[in-house]
Design goal:
Strand 7 and strand 8 form a beta hairpin. By secondary structure, this protein is mainly beta. The protein has a single domain, classed as Beta Barrel (Lipocalin), CATH 2.40.128.20. Helix 1 runs antiparallel to helix 2. The longest helix is centred in the first third of the chain and has 9 residues. The chain has a ten-stranded antiparallel β-sheet. One of its GO terms (biological process) is eye development. Belongs to the calycin superfamily. Fatty-acid binding protein (FABP) family. GO terms for molecular function: retinal binding; retinol binding. Cytosolic CRABPs may regulate the access of retinoic acid to the nuclear retinoic acid receptors. This is Cellular retinoic acid-binding protein 1.
């Protein structure tokens, strides 16, 4: 199921993230910090199937706990208050965030032993790649 995503992942590259943050409506100062930050992505699952996803950096740590396909409230690293849902589709972990009539998705998959996260907002796509620590 989601076991292949479990672990601590270190970011090795981030492409087009500034444009993605602009598309989300993130302000200039927050984008500057976001572009310099290389957070670790940490995922765990408890014995009740509750998934925990954590983004951890010196700047900020965010954490969400959820079950697959069950909507939950999320406060993102850039302080958006979203209604989010995460599903598993063809081996991809797909996170959809909705707020103020807008929607973005983050598609995470394992490719060649790396975790690849595609952040999609309209026609803007950022790709962030991680390796397991």
């Amino acid at each position: 199921m989601v076991d292949k995503f479990v672990g601590t992942w270190k970011m090795i590259s981030s492409e087009n993230f500034d444009d993605y943050m602009k598309a989300l409506g993130v302000g200039f100062a927050t984008r500057q910090v976001g572009n310099r930050t290389k957070p670790n992505f940490i995922m765990s699952v408890d014995d009740q199937g509750m998934i925990c996803m954590k983004s951890q950096s010196a700047f900020k740590t965010t954490e969400v706990k959820f079950k697959l396909n069950e909507p939950f409230d999320e406060t993102t690293a850039d302080d958006r208050k979203t209604k989010s849902v995460v599903s598993l589709d063809n081996g991809k972990l797909i996170q959809k965030q909705s707020w103020d009539g807008k929607e973005t998705s983050i598609e995470r998959e394992i490719s060649d032993g790396k975790l690849v996260a595609k952040c999609i907002m309209g026609d803007v796509v950022a790709v962030r790649t991680y390796v397991k620590e």
